Amino acid sequence: MRKEVDFLVIGSGIAGLCFALKAANFGKVCMVTKAKMDDGSTRYAQGGIASVIYKPDSYEKHIQDTMVAGDELSDRHIVELTIREATERVMELVQWGVDFDKNQDGSFALGKEGGHSMNRILHHKDITGYEIEQKLIMAARKNPNIEIYEDRLAVEIITQHHLGVEVNRRTPDITCYGAYVYNPESKNIHTILAKVTMMATGGLGMVYEHTTNPLVATGDGVAMVYRAKGAVRGMEFIQFHPTSLYNPKESPSFLITEAMRGAGAILRDANGVAFMEKYDKRGSLAPRDIVARAIDSEMKQQGVDHVFLDTSPIPRKEIFEHFPNIYAKCLSIGIDITKEMIPVVPVEHYSCGGIETDEWGATSIRNLYASGECASTGLHGANRLASNSLLEALVFSHRACIHAVEDLPSIQFCQEVPDWNSEGTVLNEEMVLITQERKELQTIMSSYVGIVRSDLRLQRAFDRLEILYRETEDLYKKSILNPEICELRNLINIGYLIVRHAMARKESRGLHYSLDYPPHSMKNVK
Ligand code: FAD
Ligand code: SIN
């Protein structure tokens, strides 16, 4: 199949859906998503969206909190424009039907999370992402200009490389002509030619053994853009969420939202000792990098597999009203959080780096935009401030649409693009090779490239990854494509990028903490 569309959107989370809903006012949109519409991270977001709504909060305070959390590596210009534009974008969500919790007087009920100096988190109980995702999907399904294809995996973006032109990282005008997309029904690769392509493929948590991310989070967009010689940055900054539910058999891990700490919950060790004050004067509500490292250090010192979150400071009524999903989940595994502490452990949660974009969401590849977790806009620096992710996707999908629409009339489809060539490939019957390599990769990344790193650990990971890379490339070239081999290849590219970027950073900063380098800044630490 060959298809021509004005806008190709890859991914159906908040970033892809917001872009699609806006772009549909200017042309035909084709959205491809590799599983069901709501299978991305967006649906699982709990805490909410940070946004300045009422005084005495101010843009300046939110900007300052974002800069501090990012360990001063965020791009101040990007931080300012994102925070200042966020309020309007969040109100658009309300117009699309998203129902944020309100106080009795009708004002928005604003929660708090780590690193925020004010209550500014809009939420829908503890299932904010589910509420947003469902309302956006409803709007997209109703829109006659948006065509939706579920279970379609984008394999590669199409550039001059596919026309036989040599492309390298210094080529100035690499151009995206659309994408090759796998259709599981026909088992064929389709050619979708697009004037504008939006990469909105979300996170990469599946590169680690334990993550809050759903199964689709295999870093596909970042890997595709990297292979197409596009710019990718900041991959060393992998955020580990301090409090996932310790339930070793469950994968992905269930999140215990930071909003619980915002509401008063306290981290304690097995003896009931609140340990966070030892590490940071902000205690359990310090930014995530600091809390995750503190828990990691306590677990290692005490030789235990988890610490506890004590929710007893939160009134019972608030538990039932604000955190019903967490209450029900914990009860389902025998923990009554109104009576007992929750066992929690840090796990991979978010990628702060990704496809480099400018202030309009434009990537280094012409006619290709990126938004959401796969993008690196400059907002998060070395560590994302809690609940700044959904907000970033809203702002940059909007900006990308404005920018793309300006260029649209002058972009032609590239008719010379050939269809996918699968000559010489054979059916791969050795699925065990793929599953085993994926497990090996996850073990390597979790053992050597976790919360605490060192030069030696990174070198070890690099050496092991090289072997996996060679074996997988070999398998990929010989195999008739299937989603499993494509995802494995992407994950190995992602592992490689994380390790290479981590090796290049000769300091400890934000989420990148190395035993071999002193922290860039001690100012946040008591
Ligand atoms: P996603 O929502 O992950 O969507 C990605 C989409 O791309 C999916 O539809 C996927 O199927 C598709 N896709 C991927 N690869 C391909 C491919 N090759 N071809 C076709 N389709 C593809 N952030 C906050 O700001 N506040 C919160 O409270 C919050 N809570 C969170 C709780 C959890 C448990 C998790 C996991 C994350 C949370 N985050 C939160 C982070 C935030 O949810 C995500 O960063 C954000 O939702 C990402 O949106 P997205 O649109 O970029 O990606
Ligand atoms: C949470 O609810 O703790 C997650 C918020 C986020 O990742 O921004």
Short characterization:
With 526 residues, the chain is of the alpha/beta class. It has helices at 14-23, 59-69, 76-95, 128-142, 220-227, 259-262, 288-302, 316-322, 324-332, 389-407, 431-448, 455-478, 483-504, and strands spanning 2-10, 29-32, 49-50, 121-122, 146-149, 153-158, 178-183, 188-199, 232-233, 238-245, 266-268, 307-310, 342-351, 354-356, 368-370, 375-376.
Keywords:
526 residues, alpha/beta, FAD/NAD(P)-binding domain, Flavocytochrome C3, Chain A, domain 1, Methane Monooxygenase Hydroxylase, Chain G, domain 1, seven-stranded mixed sheet, four-stranded antiparallel sheet, 16 strands, 15% strand, binds flavin-adenine dinucleotide, binds succinic acid
Question: Any chance you could write out the topology, listing elements then pairs?
Answer:
Elements: E1 2-10, H1 14-23, E2 29-32, E3 49-50, H2 59-69, H3 76-95, E4 121-122, H4 128-142, E5 146-149, E6 153-158, E7 178-183, E8 188-199, H5 220-227, E9 232-233, E10 238-245, H6 259-262, E11 266-268, H7 288-302, E12 307-310, H8 316-322, H9 324-332, E13 342-351, E14 354-356, E15 368-370, E16 375-376, H10 389-407, H11 431-448, H12 455-478, H13 483-504
Parallel strand pairs: 1-2, 1-8, 2-5, 8-15, 14-16
Antiparallel strand pairs: 3-4, 6-7, 7-8, 9-14, 10-13, 11-12, 12-13
Helix pairs in contact: 1-4, 1-10, 2-3, 3-10, 5-13, 11-12, 11-13, 12-13
